[in-house]
């Protein structure tokens, strides 16, 4: 087994492979492209599932995401998903409501999205399990860490829904917590914005894009990557975060294969 010659790299790039940071090996005359990560958490915002509709579920968008997940799974990558519920309801939307009640409503919204993703994935042959932090056995499994890991080892996609099961905690915190529990190598944050900026690029044309940040910089500058609880949890467990845009579903594949897009948050 040996490293591939430069001509092999050029051939792969011409064929559409993203190989800038990928280990490429020639083995018995064949070519094996090794992904940068083996086990990942993909965090999807609820708004991303709504697409241009802005509300509800855009089936075309969901199927595009499902195809990219299948593409990764076919390469042997273990994939767990955490999805938000902002396309239906956010806890903070209930301004006059009891905060706990509003947050529980948001958790139910994430279950709706999780079931939609499960349906899309299984329609293209990807075995999928939804696990919820609040028990609802008729439609999903309760979250059990050992069972989740076993599903991943059996090449099943696992979707974590209903947040942490507790009010006052975001789905970002869910992603950080589950990543620590299942020992994921990275959290991929797929958002409507293509990276982290010092201000909202939709409102400020002079907003500065960051390519790399540390956890402490995110916290000290109050950058809107994750909430502070989630960021601190990632920092304590040394879990890298990659923020990228979902405007192009291929970006999920590019990130896993090591292409430098979006913003990476990790220790120096």
Strand content: 15-25%
In whole angstroms, how far apart are the ends?
A: 32 Å
Helix residue percentage: 25-40%
**CATH superfamily label of the largest domain:** Acetylglutamate kinase-like
Number of domains: 2
Written as H for each helix and E for each strand, in order along the chain, the element string is EHEEEHHEHEEHEHEEEEHHEHE
Task: State the total count of DSSP E strands.
Answer: 14
At the first level of CATH, the class of the largest domain is Alpha Beta
Please describe what this structure looks like:
The chain is of the alpha/beta class. It has two domains: 1-34, no CATH class; 36-265, Acetylglutamate kinase-like (Carbamate kinase). Helices cover 37% and strands 21% of the residues. The protein has nine helices and 14 strands. The strands form three sheets. It has a nine-stranded mixed sheet with strand order 7-6-8-5-4-9-13-14-12, sandwiched between helices. A three-stranded antiparallel sheet has the order 1-2-3, with no helix packed on it. The chain has a two-stranded antiparallel sheet with strand order 10-11. A hairpin with a 2-residue loop joins strand 2 and strand 3. Helix 6 (171-182) runs parallel beside helix 8 (228-237). Residues 1-5, 18-22 and 25-29 have low confidence and may be disordered.
């Amino acid at each position: 087994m040996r490293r591939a010659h430069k001509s092999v790299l050029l051939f792969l790039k011409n064929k559409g492979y993203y190989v800038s940071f990928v280990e490429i090996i020639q083995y018995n005359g064949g070519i094996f492209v090794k992904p940068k990560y083996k086990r990942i958490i993909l965090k999807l915002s609820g708004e991303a599932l709504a697409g241009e509709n802005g509300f509800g579920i855009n089936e075309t968008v969901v199927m595009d995401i499902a195809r990219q997940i299948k593409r990764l799974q076919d390469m042997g990558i273990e994939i767990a998903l955490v999805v938000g519920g902002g396309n239906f309801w956010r806890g903070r939307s209930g301004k006059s409501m009891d905060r706990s009640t509003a947050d529980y409503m948001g958790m139910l919204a994430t279950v709706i999205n999780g079931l939609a993703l499960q349906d899309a994935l299984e329609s293209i042959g990807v075995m999928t399990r939804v696990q919820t932090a609040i028990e609802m056995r008729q439609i999903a499994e309760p979250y059990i860490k050992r069972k989740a890991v076993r599903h991943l080892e059996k090449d099943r996609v696992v979707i974590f829904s209903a947040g942490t099961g507790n009010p006052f905690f975001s789905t970002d915190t869910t992603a950080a917590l589950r990543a620590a529990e299942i020992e994921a190598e990275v959290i991929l944050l797929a958002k409507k914005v293509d990276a982290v900026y010092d201000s909202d690029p939709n409102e400020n044309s002079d907003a500065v894009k960051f390519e790399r940040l540390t956890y402490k910089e995110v916290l000290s500058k109050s950058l809107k990557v994750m909430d502070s609880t989630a960021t601190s949890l990632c920092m304590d467990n040394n879990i890298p975060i990659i923020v990228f845009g979902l405007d192009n579903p291929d970006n999920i594949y590019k990130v896993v294969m090591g292409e430098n897009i979006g913003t990476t948050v990790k220790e120096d």
